[in-house]
Amino acid sequence: MTLHWAALLTDAVSDSSLRIDPQGVAVWALQFTPRVAQKGATVWLEVAQSMRLFGGEDPLHQRVEAGAAELGIRALAWAPTSLAALACARMGLRDGFAMPLAQVLDPLPIESMDAVNAHQATLARLGCQTLADVRKLPRGGISRRFDSELLLALDQAYGLRPEGYPWVKLPETFSAKLEMPGRVDTAPALLFGARRLLLQMGGWLSARQCGVTAFTLHWCHDAMRARDAGEGGNLTVRTALPTQNVEHLCRLLGENLAKVHLLAPAGELALSATEVSPFIETSRSLLPDDRASFEAVGLVLERIEARLGQHRVLRPTLNEDSRMAWMAYWQPMNVKRSTSKVRQVPGPQPTWILKNPLKLDVRDDCPLYQGPLQLLLGPERVEGGWWHRVTDVEGGQHSLQVARDYWVALSQHAGALWIFQQRLPRNEAACWYLHGIFA
Amino acid sequence: MSAALQWIVNATPPPGEASLHPFGQPFDLGQLPGGVAQAIWRGTDLGQAGQSVVSSGWAALDAQLPGGGWPCNALTELLQPQPSLCEWRLLSPALAGLAAGGGHILLVGPPKRPHAPGLVQLGITEKSVVWIAADTPAERLWCTEQLVKANPRGGAILAWLPQARAEQLRRLQVHAQTCDCPVFLFRPEAAQLDASPAPLRVLATLGPDWTLQVHLLKRKGALLDGPIVLPSVPGTLASVLTPRLMRPSQLLAKTEAANDPALGRAIDRRRQRQLAAH
Question: What are the structural domain ranges in chain B?
């Protein structure tokens, strides 16, 4: 079976870009194949057995190349052997499969291979410019005059001898670092570097078949900082459901970074996946299905939550209580909810509720709200809550006991209202309060 | 046009009445092949809604809404004299169906706190309700736009946008055309004087004796004069109201008579006439 190697050079990066961590790239590459090797600044992938999974040679090439371009890697080549792929990548050739391997390698200069380049001075004096020239020399002479490494490397590059590498193992936890090309003064600008790290994390997650539920971005402040600025800062972003979607994570991080104020310019970034849980990828189908839209709503609600704050996107949890204010809790999205059945209060309930009951004016013993109210039904007596004690700001405890008579009242302009009268008023006058609206 | 129509009618002569002149009797759409009959639009007809509608739950209202229900793929403006007046009474039949199907009911910036047990009694399960407490107009617009773009299929978006301007609504309407769920915008009654890009505008007011009066201010098709009166007892009050309380207008009339001086009404009509004659 022929092997299919890709070589990625992390030191030959695009324009003035960031320095890339080869180990991070190796972890990212593990999403394509378990056979990933890394030596120095070079990362090799052997993908012959992954062809079918990714839909053939061309789609796989496109995916790897697109991913590498996003990470900022420019030099990438494909060849049947790893050393040939490395030589092609160094010389800017992309496809080592275009011609038979010998024809591809022969015209390459001797600088393209490390083992050959080590003897560059001697070989140049012998008149050797290309790999073909070196191969024309008698083998016995080469092995005697130079070390055995050269012949071995040449044979491996031309596919005459097998190659062996220690494969990169997938780390149990993910953390990656990145040094920024310049100092960054504002938090949203960190997103550019953080995106690279998120891409690496995406590769790690798909290789482990996990989804992330919380990740932390650390930044180190520059050495030239104010004394009180501290070493650096960090930001933890949580998601409601485990996800591998880098675009979504990036948007969430962007919304969160928009609220961060950097105390000093930052020079270095680190990203770690703090909470990870198993992830089952949904099958892709031709027809649009409701599940996808269900997930899209979850994602957009998370984004809204990231911008507005955690306590502004709320879902109710019913509670068995007869006091209106405690019948339902409104909690953030990612709070776990019990699925136990809650018994309903038998009587009618309004649809809107006022957080703080509104005290109504009374004229001739008749409560007023946008005109006089007509009491229709009542009283419904609600009494309880003596067990519910809370500590207030001053440290004192008081009970949330209520003793109220609820009435349905009708207003000509505001519709049916749910009003109550304190049953045991502290002061003598019995006050009326508006608590809900049957809207 | 008439030549074309004659050709159509001639092409499909009714079996037993071939001898009759085609224009001698009222034109019967049923004689036409299906595709052609659908393509004919008369001035008195209602327009077609978008691709799909959600039944409003009121037969009288469905009959007057284009397509027979609240439209998907478009904005629906609901105007009320004051906020938190009759939102759930009007929408709960439609929303209960959506919630039962597992859709999200997304509330953007409601004027008061929604009371989940009350909603559950209307059939809107607590799992489906999401309350987005967006306060400023800009936040409400942004949240609404994000939700409309996300296309929560099978659910509904309810947004309270009292201060939205026409160009902001137009932007929402453009996004809503790709959204397969009804989008309701609640706005004050005064907004009916402004132009709006929403294809359906509804003014809902309270009528006497547990009724809702629904005016269709704008719809695709002919204008509708006069309100549609929907009998609607809010929530589960119907189960506890006595027959006498089902007609509270009589009670109110009595109270009002007693409270005339309290309300500060200028002067009684009859008395005014007497004064003028004096």
Answer: 2-39, 53-239, 248-277
